[in-house]
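Incident log, structure service

09:12 report received: a user says their structure output differs between two submissions of the same chain.
09:20 pulled the input from the user's history:
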Amino acid sequence: MSDPSDIVSPAAKAPHGIVDVARSAGVSSRTLRHYDAIGLLPATAVGAGGLRRYDDRALVRLQRILLLRSAGLGLPEIGRRLHTEPDDASALAAHVVGLERERDRLARQLAAVRTTVARIEHGERLTVAAALDGFAPVT
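09:34 re-ran on a clean worker, output below:
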């Protein structure tokens, strides 16, 4: 016979409340409820008072959704991607590569703008390469 104390409620398995998740993700609770309604991010459990709760797997899914949204994808395309790319680790590893490439591009732009400011302040001429490094799209 099993001990009733061994039974863990679904809400207890989902330690992250909707308010904390929404705040940390920079979205509204309404957005998370919408994602749930369209099947993009189902709540792991519904706790007392009907509050949605999320487990770590749901947080990973939300991270992927946010990354795809920041890439300009719409919700239907995000849903397709989540369905066709079910391996979270591989999908996130691909995002890491893209984010690192974007970080490097932004670092080059920052350096170019700093160089431009310094040359303007010193009355020096600009070079095309120095002024525009990081602005051309990477091909």
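09:41 both user submissions now match this output. Likely a transient worker issue. Closing.
09:42 reviewer note: The helical segments are 10-13, 18-25, 29-37, 56-70, 75-84, 88-121, 128-132. DSSP finds seven helices and three strands in the chain.
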